[in-house]
Automatic annotation (TrEMBL), chain A:
Residues 261-377, 706-816 form the ABC3 transporter permease C-terminal domain. InterPro entries: ABC3_permease_C, Membrane_comp_ABC_pdt. The keyword Coiled coil does not apply. The chain crosses the membrane at residues 22-42, 312-335, 347-372, 393-411, 417-446, 467-486, 701-720, 753-776, 788-810. Pfam families: FtsX. The keyword DNA damage does not apply. Signal peptide: none annotated. This is FtsX-like permease family protein. PANTHER family: INNER MEMBRANE PROTEIN, MEMBRANE COMPONENT OF PREDICTED ABC SUPERFAMILY METABOLITE UPTAKE TRANSPORTER. It is a multi-pass membrane protein. The lineage of its organism: Bacteria, Pseudomonadati, Pseudomonadota, Betaproteobacteria, Neisseriales. It comes from Parachitinimonas caeni. Keywords: Cell membrane, Membrane, Transmembrane, Transmembrane helix.
Amino acid sequence: MVAAGWSLAARMLRRDLRAGELTVMLVALVVAIAAMSSVGLFTDRVARALEREADQMLAADLVMSADQPIPDAFRAEAKRLNLALAQTTIFPSMVQIGDKAQLTTIKAVTPNYPLRGKVRLGRPDSYRETVAAPSPGTAWGDQRLFDSLGLKPGDTIVLGERSFRIVEAIQREPDAAMDLYNFVPRLLIPAADVASTGLIQTGSRIRYRLLLAGPADAIKAYRAWAAPKLQRGQRIEDVREARPEVRTSLERSERFLRLSALVSVFLAAASISLAARRYVERHLDPVALLRTLGASQRLIVSLFLRQYVLLALLAGALGLGVGVMAHFALVSSLATFVKTDLPPLSWWPALSGFTVGVTLLFGFCLPPLLRLQKVSPLRVIRRDLAPAANERVAWGLGALVLCGLIGWQAGDALLAALALAGMGGTILLSATGAWLLLWLSTHLALPLGPGFRFGVANLARRRVMSVAQIVALSLGIMALLLLVVVRGDLLSAWARSLPPDAPNRFGINIQPDQRAPIASAFRANGMTAPTFAPMIRARLLSIGDKVLKPDSYKDERARNLAEREFNLSWGDSLRKDNRLVAGRPLNDAVPEFSVEESLAERLGIKLGDRLVFMIDGRRFEAPVTSLRKVNWDSFQPNFFVVGSHALLGGVPASYLTSFHVRADKQAFVNGLVRTYPNLTIIDVTVILNEVRSMLTRAAEAIEYVFAFSLLAGLTVLYAATLSTQDERRREAAILRTLGASSRVVWQAMSTELLMVGGVAGVLAGLAALLTGALAASKLFELGWNFNWYLPVGGLVGGAAGVLLAAWPLLRKVLATPPLRALNHS
Amino acid sequence: MTPEFAKGPIVRAEGLTKQVGMQTDTLTILDSVGFELPPAASLAIVGASGSGKSTLLGLLAGLDMPTSGEVTLVGQSLNRLDEDGRAKLRAERIGFVFQSFQLLGALTALDNAALPLELAGRANARREAEAILRRVGLGERLRHYPKQLSGGEQQRVAIARAFATTPDLLFADEPTGNLDTQTGAAIIDLLFDLNREHATTLVLVTHDDRLAQRCQCRLRLAGGKVVEREGV
Ligand SMILES: Nc1ncnc2c1ncn2[C@@H]1O[C@H](COP(=O)(O)OP(=O)(O)OP(=O)(O)O)[C@@H](O)[C@H]1O
Ligand SMILES: [Mg+2]
């Protein structure tokens, strides 16, 4: 009997399929799996494209830099891990042509530079992009070098002990932003020619960089190997550390992409749970029949288990196929970077869609199956003997499965926690709300027409089913709405964070008495005067009663931070782009410190710790009374540590500012520098442009993934509503037999649908309002943001959506003779 | 009695044919059936299982459309009405009892029986439905759901639902099929009371000889054709 199990299960499945019994289940399952795998595939590729886009700013995936030549061991390990590697050597020197000379940043690169991104060569109006380094004996200069020395391509310049023919003008170097103080012109030469210049001598200021690129796990392995071996002066960084300006936007977009993938899991769960219920309801009779024919309980369970396995494999394969195809269709319909730079397909997300679908199927079908096992053969005769549905076990197991899957798919504890809170909250809210509504609708005698009354009563009569339906629908709608709000919040925050007039110059080393004249020079030029922040160089001596010993930090970043001199500021610590995460704002009357959150974490500084700084040989000691979050991508002056006025107000300080200069105002800036020779202006346009382009791409990615997830989600919800439609078809047909007019049938059905959809929508909107606010604040760090339109949007969207989904079926039933409609269901 | 069909037949079937398409060929399940029935008459349709009785009944009540031929009820051709027009006719004039009852599982016996009255907008729908359920012996089972009722009890709810609006025409598919002799006899009495009191025309499909004999007319089907007629 057991040997016959598989073939019998297959035959039963085939029969069910032919009879149309499984169509709804199969459609729901296939659509859910297709949505998960296509969204998964797409988000995975977009996430990797974004990451790679960011890596261009390093010209590599990982960079090791040092102030001494990099030991061979670091290169050997990279080769062992099959990583691509290139080297750059950067130092300042004079470049000469005839009697003209110019201080220049020289960058010697190996032939395979850059590993990520491209070098842009030519004139600003006609350029080409290339992945190459200058060939031996030649050099490429940037536009500033060409301008200041009056160069033409083909000229020969002198660098140290040898000459180079300068053949190209560089418009853009992918990793130029790495050297922040790049206000001098730049020259690229081949690494092979460095030695012959005779400029590399001990004591010269040289930065050595080893660029590495390769698969993510190899990079990770390399980093793990290298980190403990780093000596003083050596550093290893990826783009997030090297360019904190893009870190936030990268992390936010990644979270959004993962959230989209999670949303498709939620929707699949909602859809599969509905379909599975229906499926099991319809299978009570055959099970009872099998029992009367002498099948044992064990046989029945194993038979149905096998049927599920076969069904899952079938739906999984179909869903996977459809998902992959949908994903390709999407990608080929795309424009812009998402298409051109998309990394190759990875099969993991598709497979995980399959796994999630199958797991969900079992999660939702297993408890009812165990329930089926107890079906009494008597049910064939007495149809009321269905065993009481153990709703709690079924939902409990479903929820447990879902929790596991969410944890797995989220890949990030905070996101998982938020998703679970959102899910739990939605289920609780919608279940309570649905019960309440059904109770009210039966206990309030509303003066309604027969059609409406029938609809309301019908909903209340099928209480358990109605509640389950509302809960599942709520969950689906909530997930979609969450995506809608998070997308909106994120995009508008980005639009705000880097407006067109975001600062593109930093001015440092401003003396206190120069502030007023500089401000009035700005005003005289029709520009708004910038604000000036005091800056004091200081060394951190101790945290609490622990004297700071850089070597005691295992983390290389922490060690670097502990070694460095700090730039302190005082006063107004909570700028627009700073957010208090712990403690209270600085009290200017009392000596105290406010510390940036990530620095505090790295150095182990806690709220209440007393910090001691040395400034000009004097000790300054005060407790930490707040931790701040800083938006490094705002291009405003910001400080890791800020003291109160009472503490640092009396210390001599220079001032720092940032401001926006339009291209046509450059002359004004040059004039400023001439008037105040001590003033240093740093042009951060390059970085700003990089960050802005990164944001544009991240926004683009989010838009695509959002639109796609929304579409996939609506399809899933539609498939889910199908699973509740066959009961309606029968009811409509019977009402027709009893002579109900189309209007009455419409009233009855639409009352029911509108109530289910509307209630689910309102509750989902409410849940999305709270979850969205939580997401904005905790996950995306945008502050609390309540989108009050959500419940209304959910109400309208839910009601209209459910009605629209049922529309075609209802129209068909009303146009068909009742007997035919009855035979169909 | 309403004038428009007082002179003519209340049911007229002409050349009723029903074919269904199977995978390869078409199957004729009803072949050129024709008859006329005067108001307040009673007709029994008999025949072996699968002979087309239920199909004919469904066509007569306008629950399905014939492949060819025409049904005229109370002077109106069903072919010329749309689905809504036929539904309206059913609401006003016709009661139907399905062989498989077709009760709504989510409604109690009382709600099922009251449904047509509610649809017709009767103020005392539930009270009237309750009275009818009592007449069919279900006074104690008003609040039970169909799946809690036996087959015979469900059948009686279906009959009560068809009776509820005191229709001019009642179609019933084996109304006593699941009933014991005694209950069956009570239901038959009920049908003929309705026939007498309200001049309701009865069209019944039955295997029950007693019931067939109480009808004025009889029609025997075999293989979708009329093979014997009595009084029509
Ligand atoms: N939609 C359909 N498709 C195919 N065959 C059909 C369809 N409807 C009815 N039939 C066939 O037509 C024949 C007549 O069916 P019908 O239900 O009218 O029989 P009946 O006389 O009422 O039988 P019974 O006494 O068993 O109820 C049967 O053989 C049936 O299988
Ligand atoms: Mg029949």
